[in-house]
Amino acid sequence: MSLFRIDRWRRGLWSDLVPLIGVAMLLIAAVISGLLYYAAQQVDANSARQQQGLVSVVVQQALDRVPHDQESVTVWNEAVERVRGTPDPDWLDANLGVWMHTYFGHDRAYILNPAGTAIYAMVDGHRAAPTDYEEVRPVTAPLLQELRDKLGHSVMDKASNPTIRSTGALDLALIGGHPAVVSLKPIISEDGSIQQAPGAYYVHVAIRYLDGRFARNLSSRYLHSAVSFSVGDARPDRHHISYPLMNRSGQTLGSFIWRPMLPGQRMLREIVPVLAASLLFVAAVIALLLFRLRQERLQLEASEAQAQHLAFHDSLTGLPNRALFNDRLDHTLAGLKRGQERLAVLYLDLDRFKEVNDTLGHPGGDELIRQVAARLCEEVRAGDTVARLGGDEFGIIQTGVSSPGDVETLCARVIETVVRPVAIMGSEAFVGISIGSALAPTDGQDRTELLRKADIALYNAKEEGRGRFALFQESMDATVQIRRRVERELREALASGVGLTVFFQPLFSVQQDAVSGVEALVRWQHPQRGLLSPATFIPIAEETGLIEPLGLWVLEHACAAAVGWPITTLAVNVSAVQLRNSKFPQQVLAILARTGFDAKRLELEVTETAIVKGAERSRAALDALRSAGIRIALDDFGTGYSSLSHLRDFAVDRVKIDRSFVTGLAQSPDRTAFVQAIVDLAQATGLKVTAEGVETAEQRATLSDIGCTDLQGYLLSRPLSRMDTDRLFASKALPDQSVA
């Protein structure tokens, strides 16, 4: 059969089927409509019954509640004594009358003597004349007689209701046109210690209306429709339903009437227009069926593409996620095996992201991640892949790599673009980035192996400091084992005190052009690796909890060494962990007492992050230290989330500008302007400003002109041992700068 005949046969088949489909759809619509109407009627009837049952339960709860309310005051020795003789009206108000209205919401209360005469009355929360009882006497008289009969048998009544403590009489009645619960309870001894002769009981009468406040509560809590009460045998219209209120003798007092919730009708109101519209457009639907099928197929394909996109992309940045990153890496590596050029895998991890996220909150952290992702995409070529692997971790697949120099160039560009200030929520945040890279096929052609080596390179880059990159080398494979060994050996060094030493880097006054102080820097004379800088072991100390004993060790040795030096400032670094310890101020003062070092010469350096985390504890510690005369310096200012308000909120004496802003200062007007802003603010608030990392004469001149009060860096002096520092102050000259 030719394609033309097949197509004509298909068109003829649809021409025959369209009328049949139309009739079938009409029949189906009719059946569905009938079923929907029947189901709606059944649902509405069931809903009405449930609402009537709910009203019955609520009324019964009111009947049960009133006697319980009474028993809180009628089964009471003091009440028995107080109602005898000449009762105190104020006491009756506060315990048996007005209090019943205030606490339980009773509308009326009466106290009857053994003769049945009212000696007290409360109406609508106010004391009333006992003669007001005559209005309710026709209703209460039969109940009073019933109660007297019951009292002839037993004061306690546990048989009819185990929760009832005393005999009573209860019924529903109309009081002044109000449906009401009427309950009578004898006032009896709580423990039987007061003898009461039969017929000598005082009786408490409680009345609670079931319209008004009760009806409003019923409406708002259960029926969500205004409830009214109609006296007599009410006949509600077809839009309302009722619940008859009958007393014990079966007499109908009236009915609660309300507009019921009719979920069936609501369902029909929502469905019928849709069904009618469907019937009106059934012809068009049939005519466009094939078109719609085609459209649905296209939409399904689009949905599948979207679902696939969401499954393989990060929702925050739109970048590929780890799954797609791994998949693309596998495909690219497969191409390498067919003889294509080399590639590099880069692992990237943001520096100081946690501090910024803690300060700005998650919205600010999310915005930072988005902006960093956009900057990364700007630095790669069209054929490369940038992925967010999770948290503040990113990955890059760099293709077309001809040499390691290509990778180094990309890493340098990425670091340079990430360290630029990020505008977030009206402020500027500063983060860095560390990068580890592995090349294929040089470092392997298996994805797992390449990623492992890139991760090792990243760890190495972070170990070397912030804002660095590292290409994998075989020697890095032992990094993890070395780190574990360093932790163990650091514990041993702290326990024995052997190997750790303190170096001192001079602080130069710009005005005096002379040494004005020193900063204490811990070093570790490792038995195998030689003299180690803090960057090697301080992070390990912070992670393992060793930073507190190490910090106190450095402080004590620095104070002991500097006690005789002619300096005004001994600066010692303090970690966030130490600052959050409530005992830290006392520990510092104890060290000063042991070493004899003057507190006014001591300056503790804390980072901005250290005082922001646990701000209340940090503030308390700083206040205690400053009250003892110790000065506080804000270290590494300008890194992380730079908030100038912290200079106001936390009392500090000095600001230290981070070395990252000093590096390349003369070549970057932005950095110069930022440093100038810090200096201006510090001068306005009476703070000293120290610039760290001064390595060139040009930097020294620029920082001096800007207004920095003190400078510190390798241009002026490297860190010195204690012996060299002693010689420095003895000779007034700097020793050879080749040490430390």
UniProtKB/TrEMBL annotation:
Gene3D superfamilies: 3.30.70.270, EAL domain. Keywords: Membrane, Transmembrane, Transmembrane helix. Residues 483-733 form the EAL domain. Residues 341-474 form the GGDEF domain. It holds the Pfam family CHASE4. The chain crosses the membrane at residues 20-40, 271-291. SUPFAM superfamilies: EAL domain-like, Nucleotide cyclase. SMART domains: EAL, GGDEF. NCBIfam families: GGDEF. This is Periplasmic sensor diguanylate cyclase/phosphodiesterase. It comes from Faunimonas pinastri.
